[in-house]
Write a structure and sequence with these properties.
elongated, about 600 residues, six-stranded antiparallel beta sheet, mainly beta, about 45% strand, Immunoglobulin-like, 4 domains
């Protein structure tokens, strides 16, 4: 809160500043890039008074900050200049834009912004012309005096008496990179002398910006009435500068009126008092003012009121001067003075670090790989928050939805450092999620996100076939063979539509009678393998990942002719089973049909039995 009071005095004008620190979050302004010939060049596009693509604002513009005026809305409005009463503060804005494409050779080196006053600062006149120029080490100078860039700006002093103008100390501010990463930088008070260096400016609208500064018009001296205005920060308890309100010795000033103009971001808080007595605040803040009566020789009149500065949400980042001007006047005397409130808005720099436990996505991003009903298992650290500040931890699907928020509160040091081991709900759909910190409905920090994998699908299939190795042929479900011939069996383990690796895979084969294994012929994925427990409790084999297969082959001999009945066929069934973790199993068979031919009687003519 600012506490402001006035005292009437002979014309001895001083200004005091109170600094009020607030915290805020920067807003971003977007522009569109253009491409033209190479080499840095400033303000090359046609003039507009409403920001538009392929257009530039006038190089220089001005407004009466005391009266709360806005910037020019047309060329005629611009050409009319700024009307200012004695004691008014006039703000100027220099617009710069390197209109070339954003490549290194088009970067303007050591860009210099300068302002000029005609007549010079401190000289009196009823009209003061302000101009500005933009130059760089490797770019031609452009000036507001060029009508194609908008023209200079005149201050028209009201009241008929010549006044001087002076730079308001601390009012030169750079608003840079307004189309990409807006920043506010306080600059030295050298804009009317050596100029201000704003550094290297790259091409394109992303890097356009403004340099603003303020000048103050001196006060009219009519008669012997004076006013001095001061301000202090009541919230922080800073003191007033010494003040008085009086008339010169021997003078009596009758029927003195006092009025005040508050900046729109200052709000009256309480009553306006004159020597401790409340007066009409509506009159005090109007053009008619409040009649405080006669100011006698060496008398002081003390006028006080309190004002509250607007909330941080009403400011962007940077330093802002809120002018507050009071005027004491009679029918033939008038004088003004101001006491400004300096508001400093500093951004919160919030950082977020999420450290996920395994498993992680294999792209090296550090993102977690999870499924619904898994635990998050992520260490979440957020810094730069306000003490005990509430915020949201947000996960947003890359498609835009769903958006899932978890409320959290920082500690007294503005830090949140917790491990989230809660379970992931079914609200999370399959896919990639960005993670960020939300404060006041704005995303203020990006965190390392995660991926929700599809639900686990585990399937297994066993396919068993056979072929006659003696006579050749393809693998089939049933092969024909003769006694003593050799056959080859093939088993294929397939994960089908599984999206996770099959583990603890065991394959077991059961040979029928009259078929015997040929030692040394067992192969697993083409690698000769000892049969071990293959024909008993089963053979443990490698894991089977999605999209791959496991193939086992071995050979067996059919029993000899003596084991079969002539003239008959016999089906020999070879069965196999595969099992894997999570109770997966399957089985299949392959058949060998063995036929033994009956003896064939030789052809010929039978003879009679001899006697």
């Amino acid at each position: 809160m600012a506490f402001i009071y006035h005292k009437l005095k002979m014309l001895d004008f001083k200004k005091a500043f109170a600094t009020i620190g607030l915290a805020g979050i920067a807003a971003m302004l977007l522009s569109s890039p253009l491409s033209i010939a190479a080499g840095p060049q400033f303000n090359i596009f046609p003039i507009t008074y409403t920001p538009a693509l392929n257009k530039d604002l006038p190089l220089l513009d001005g407004r009466n900050a005391t009266d709360g005026e806005g910037w020019s809305t047309s060329q005629s409005d611009h050409d009319a200049g700024v009307n200012a009463d004695p004691g008014d503060v006039v703000e100027f804005s220099v617009y710069y834009h390197n209109g070339m494409p954003n490549v290194d050779e088009n970067t303007a080196i050591n860009t210099l912004i300068r302002a000029f006053a005609t007549p010079s600062l401190g000289s009196t006149a009823t009209t003061h012309r302000i101009s500005a120029s933009i130059s760089a080490q490797n770019a031609s100078t452009v000036s507001s005096s060029d009508s194609s860039r908008g023209g200079d700006v005149n201050i028209q002093v009201q009241g008929g008496q010549a006044q001087s103008i002076s730079l308001v100390p601390g009012s030169v501010v750079l608003f840079k990179d307004q189309g990409s990463n807006p920043q506010t930088v306080n600059l030295p008070d050298t804009i009317f002398t050596s100029g201000v260096n704003i550094g290297n400016i790259r091409g394109c609208f992303e890097f356009h910006g403004f340099v603003n500064f303020k000048v103050k018009v001196s006060q009219i001296v009519q008669g012997d009435l004076g006013i001095q205005k001061n301000v202090k920060n009541v919230t922080k308890g800073t003191g007033f500068n010494a003040t008085e309100v009086s008339a010169d010795p021997g003078d009596t000033v009758p029927s003195v009126f006092v009025k005040d103009a508050l900046d729109p971001k200052l709000t009256l808080n309480g009553a306006v008092t004159v020597d401790g007595v409340s007066v009409s605040s509506s009159s005090f803040f109007s053009s008619s003012g409040v009649n405080i009566g006669t100011v006698n020789t060496d008398s002081n009149r003390d006028i006080r009121f309190r004002a509250t500065v607007a909330s941080a949400s009403q400011f962007s980042n940077g330093t802002f001067i809120l002018p507050n001007t009071a005027t004491a006047f009679t029918t033939n005397k008038s004088t003004s003075d101001g006491a400004d409130v300096r508001v400093v808005i500093t951004p919160q720099i919030i950082a977020c670090t999420y450290t996920w436990d395994a498993p992680l996505i294999s792209d090296g991003s550090g993102r977690g790989s999870r499924r619904v009903n898994d635990r998050f298992n992520v260490q979440q650290r957020v810094t730069g928050l306000g003490a005990n500040q509430n915020f949201n931890r947000v996960f947003q699907h890359v498609s835009g939805a769903p958006v899932i928020k978890f409320a959290a509160t920082a500690n007294s040091s503005g830090v949140y450092d917790q491990k989230d081991t809660s379970f992931i709900s079914s609200s999370f759909t399959t896919g990639d999620y960005n993670a960020f910190i939300e404060l006041n409905n704005s995303n203020v920090a990006v965190c390392t996100g995660m991926r929700i994998e599809p639900p686990v699908v585990s399937q297994i299939n066993l396919d068993k076939t056979v072929r006659n190795e003696t006579i050749g042929g393809s693998f089939v479900d049933q092969a024909d063979a003769q006694p003593s011939e050799r056959v080859t069996f093939k088993l294929v383990v397939d994960p089908q539509n599984s999206n996770s690796t099959l583990t603890s895979v065991v394959v077991r084969d059961t040979l029928p009678n009259k078929v015997s294994f040929v030692s040394g012929t067992l192969n697993v994925n083409g690698v000769q393998t000892s049969e071990g427990a293959f024909f008993s409790s089963g053979l443990s084999v490698s894991n089977v990942s999605p999209g791959s297969q496991l193939t086992i082959t071995f050979q067996a001999d059919v029993a000899s002719t003596s084991q079969f009945t002539a003239g008959t066929c016999e089906i020999l069934t070879n069965s196999a089973t595969v099992t894997a973790a999570t109770n997966l199993s399957d089985s299949d068979t392959a058949l060998v049909k063995v036929c033994k031919q009956a003896p064939v009687k030789e052809p010929g003519t039978p003879s009679n039995r001899p006697f």
